[in-house]
Amino acid sequence: MRTGSADGAVVVATWEFGKVCVQAAVAALEKGGTALDAVEQAAWVAEEDGSNASVGYGGNPNSDGVVQVDAAIMWGADHGAGSVAALEGVLHPVSVARRVMEQSSHVMLVGEGARKFAVAQGFEQVELLTPEARERWKKWKKEQGATENHDTIGVVALDGDGNLAASCSTSGAGFKHPGRVGDSPIIGSGLYVDGEVGAAAATGQGEDIMRHCACYAVVAHMARGLAPDEACLETLRYMAQRDPRGADIAIGIVAVDKQGRYAGAGMRKGFPYACGTAGEIQVIQGVWVKEK
Ligand code: GLY
């Protein structure tokens, strides 16, 4: 478990590809943005990266060959939350989620309703399916394979004013059933923030994360005094005890607390996460429950 920079601002994101996302988030903080701006900007980087097959533009499509994305954002200062699920044709679903939080009386919009809301809010309609992703889908269709593994971008941040925020964005399980929604847009599952305690965001098989409300559990453990690394491990151990597959479910969680302590933890060894403070951005191996 680690501690952030002297001014207390810290951003943590899932996976090695989270490093460039954290860079964008730290830049947003340095320009005077809040933790909310930071987690939104972090997600943008993954969402517009066409080489990332798990998030936004370039993400793997569903079994119909359509990219449907899920995203959410949460802001500790007023316990605000917004999310979108099975959304089509918007480059930055995390920003639509932020508009749901800030410009509507709702928390979650799905499918065509989410798309109509995005259009009404002025979001441009774009094609998220890249030629490369289309080729992957055609190959999958020919071979009739299973759904594919996927690596969600999940981000947590604490800003210099002590505000906490989290975001998630994903194209979900590759070649999923149309309309399938994972954990990422589900408040308490893919992410959770308590402005007085801490924030958590998850990556992994959404169905497994959702059944355990994983991020709510992490924050609840921090609320009763556990440091972020122990809070993540306690949650993962509990999931492994309850699940018939034990520790063989693939899940990673990042967390930060109000004191600026942060951690990443995977069910298995080998979950890298990115962390940034004003002075330093690095990729760190998370702690784990099961060695192999
Ligand atoms: N963790 C993202 C998903 O399962 O869709």
Helix fraction bin: 25-40%
Question: Structural class of the helices, strands and pairings?
Answer: alpha+beta
| Count of alpha and pi helical runs | 8
Biggest sheet descriptor: 8 strands, mixed
Strand arrangement in the largest pleated sheet: 5-4-3-7-6-2-12-13
Termini separation comes to 21 Å
Spell out the helices and strands N to C: EEHHEEHEHHEEEEHHHEEEEE
The count of β-strands is 14
Bound molecules: glycine
Rg over C-alpha atoms, rounded to the nearest angstrom: 17 Å
Question: Can you walk through the features of this model?
Answer:
The protein is of the alpha+beta class. It is built from 8 helices and 14 strands. It has helices at 18-30, 35-47, 93-103, 111-120, 131-143, 206-211, 214-223, 228-242; strands spanning 2-3, 10-14, 69-75, 80-87, 108-110, 153-158, 164-170, 191-194, 198-204, 251-257, 261-268, 272-276, 281-285, 287-290. An 8-stranded mixed β-sheet has the order 5-4-3-7-6-2-12-13. Strands 1, 8, 9, 10, 11 and 14 form a 6-stranded mixed β-sheet that branches. Strand 12 (272-276) and strand 13 (281-285) form a beta hairpin. Helix 7 (214-223) crosses helix 8 (228-242). The radius of gyration is 17 Å and the shape is globular. Residues 70, 150, 152, 170, 172-173, 182-184, 203-206 line the site of glycine.
Descriptors for this entry?
292 residues; alpha+beta; eight-stranded mixed sheet; six-stranded mixed sheet; 14 strands; 31% helix; 27% strand; binds glycine
How would you briefly describe this protein structure?
By secondary structure, the protein is of the alpha+beta class. It contains 8 helices and 14 strands.
